[in-house]
Structures are given as structure tokens and as C-alpha cells.
Specification:
The protein contains five helices and no strands. The protein is mostly helical. The protein is elongated and about 50 Å long.
């Protein structure tokens, strides 16, 4: 089983999430104003959530044997982040700067989800199915 890609993807996601969470906590008021929010509580709560998420990723990525169930949950949480981002964009809660920030972060989260999903398949020893199969 090849776990290298999955470990690296989890570690990269953890680093990005920790950095993002720290930035959101340190500059919550300024970011809330910049992104068109009247109250920084959402920004602060997101920062705390990202730091907790990051800790879980590090815990799994540094285990001797990765927990593939937790890795799958990480992909599900990344996809949930993307769904939430789409809902925020559709609701028009943020201003232009906030929408752009959400789109950029969403692209990065999507890349992590894809890399982690590929890593899970490799770690589980699964082979991608052929695009065309004979009947």
C-alpha cells in the first residue's frame, strides 16, 4: 500500500488549514469588515474550526498506520466546505472581495480533496476502473 501521497496531502491540508485559521483569528475584525460582514464572530468561529481540523489531520497523517476512515472523512469535510462556499456565494452574504477570497480558498480545498481521494485509492490498493468496459 502506497501511503506517501495521502500523508503529504493530509499534511499540506493541515498546514494550509492551520495558517488560514491563525490568520482568521488574528485579523477577524479586519477580515469581517473587508469581506462585508458586520460581525467578526463567523470569522473567529471559522478560524477556531480550522485549527481543530488541522490538529485532526496532523494526528492522522503522523500515525504509523493511517486511518483511511478518517482520511475519507477529511475528503467529506472538504466537500462540505465547498458546498458551504457555494451556498454563501449564492446567498450574496459577502461583498466582491469576500467572494473572491472564498473562490480562491475553494479552489485550494478542492485540490486537497482530489489529492486525498487519489491517495486513499492508492493506499487501499484500488485501481481506477477503465473508462470503457466490454459487455
Amino acid at each position: 500500500m502506497d501511503m506517501k501521497l495521502l500523508r503529504r496531502a493530509l499534511c499540506a491540508n493541515a498546514a494550509f488549514s492551520a495558517l488560514s485559521g491563525t490568520i482568521l483569528l488574528i485579523w477577524s475584525s479586519w477580515l469581517a469588515t473587508t469581506f462585508g460582514l458586520s460581525n467578526p464572530i463567523f470569522v473567529t468561529a471559522t478560524g477556531v474550526g480550522l485549527l481543530l481540523f488541522s490538529a485532526g489531520l496532523v494526528r492522522n497523517a503522523t500515525r504509523r498506520k493511517l486511518n483511511l476512515g478518517e482520511a475519507r472523512m477529511t475528503v467529506a469535510l472538504d466537500v462540505s466546505w465547498l458546498a458551504g462556499s457555494i451556498l454563501l456565494l449564492a446567498a450574496g452574504v459577502l461583498n466582491r472581495e469576500g467572494n473572491w477570497a472564498l473562490l480562491v480558498v475553494g479552489d485550494i480545498v478542492l485540490a486537497f480533496a482530489i489529492l486525498q481521494a487519489i491517495g486513499i485509492r492508492r493506499a487501499a490498493g484500488e485501481r481506477p476502473q477503465e473508462a470503457v468496459t466490454e459487455v
